[in-house]
Design brief:
The chain has about 110 residues and is mainly α. The protein is built from 1 helix and no strands.
Amino acid sequence: MENYRQQGGIQQLLVAEQEARQIVSAARTAKLNRMKQAKVEAEEEVAKYRAHMEKEYQKTVSESTGFSGVNVKRLDEETVKKIDHLKKQAAKVSPEVIKLLMTQVTTV
């Protein structure tokens, strides 16, 4: 009877060990599947972020490039206005400067 109990106990232990192996194997498989899914989701998120940043970069480039012609034209117009303003001021002051120089040159 004792021998029969030992064999039954051993058999139960073998069955329990087999069940434990199956549980561990299933857990490993589930873990691997979760890891693969997380990797796929992360790659998708990175692709979305990369596309968003590329779009922002292209927008910035197009804005700065598109306005460069307008900026050059605006700067040319401002420069012409400033030159005209300086010429007008010089024309106003020129007779006074000439008079002052003539006075200084002729006075000994």
